[in-house]
Structures are given as C-alpha cells and as structure tokens.
Amino acid sequence: MTKLVLHIGMQKTGSTAIQRSLAANNGNGFVLPHLGGKPLKPLHRDALMQLFPKSSEQLTNRPIQKGRNLDVVADPVHQIRLAAAKTNTVILSSEGIAKIDLRKFASFARELFDDVVVVGYVREPISLMSAAFWTSIRAYPAAGFNLGRLPYRSYWIFDKIFGRENVQLWRYDKSDFPDGDIVQHFCSRLGLPKLTSENRNETVSRPAVAATYRLNRGLRGANWMPSSASAPQL
User: Which domain of life, per UniProt (predicted)?
Assistant: First the structure.
C-alpha cells in the first residue's frame, strides 16, 4: 500500500528543518522526491505549480519574478512516479502548496497512491506574528510585515478537497515535541524512522529583537544602503 504525505507547513513552524532532515536521510523508510533546487531545499511547490497551475500567469510570471522555476527538473511527474515505485511512503513538502490547483493535484495523487494524507502545523497567531516580525527586521532593508496575511484562511480547502479525515493539523509548541525537536515529532506522528533536526532556530530574546529593530530603522533613516562587503549580518 503506497501513501503520499503532503506536508503543507504552515509558515514559521520548522518546515525548513523538516525538509532538510528528510532530504539528508532520503530513502530511510520514505522518499522525498528531488524535483529541483538545492539538495537540502526541495522545490516541490515550484515543480507542482508548473504541473498544476491555477492560471497561465503562474507559468509565465514566476520564472521571471523569482528565477526559481528554471531549477525544476525536466520531468517532475516521472520523479514522483519513480519515488512511488521505490517505497511505500512518499513525502512532498511546501508551505505554499495551497497556491497550486489542488483539485487537479488530488486527482493525480489518488491515481498514483492508495492513500493521500495532508499534514501540517498550526501556530498560535501571537506566536506566528512574533516570529514573522523577527524575520522581517533581521534583514536590511526590513521586509514588509502584513498582519492581515495569516495563512489560516486557506487551510479549509484541504478539508474540502482531500476530506477532513485525511487532514491532520498539529499544534506548533516546542513543549509538545520530544526534546523540543519538531523533526522528531513529525516522524513519530507519521511512523517514520527517528530523525533529529539538522538545524534548530534558537529563541531570540526581546531585547535582541528591539535592538535589531532600532538598528534597522536607524540605518533606513540615514538612507544607508549596504554594499556586498559592508552589509551587516543582522
């Protein structure tokens, strides 16, 4: 019996750590298909968006705007089919998977796999906003920060298309995870071999966040733009 695990994020819930740990241990009871990108950072969304776009604009605009689709392998479908032939469990992972045509993807997946399961983590709004704010200010110039763009509103579509019984959403709280490690939690919930995180983000103190915010604002107020050699590592 073959199973597809579709890991959907959400943002700021350790998706990168999960993806890198899975990629580093690929073939150990599961297969994470290489559809393009760096070995430890799969481009699953980009490949699936080419296969199942919601509109023609997704095909024409993304390579120009992001420069990432050009790294997608020539035949992602073949890679997914090859993975299904090698193992009982195939994993696809992307925080932006809701942006593809999920109905077409679900039809494709059900033809290839006996079981399709959607999994993801949900972070409390205040915790999510704090993490997103830190991400927005630790780069210079600071990235945009929009409180209205929380990802929860798109999650209902997974229940509708894949069936509520096939969707598992878990609370993102490090106190719930073995040794505080989300990768161990992810593997244990799916019955995968035990893996540990390849990279753990340390908790940032409030004074550090405040200092970084003030530094970023000060540099921006002075209209200072860094060169590649002088850019501060915030």
Answer: Bacteria
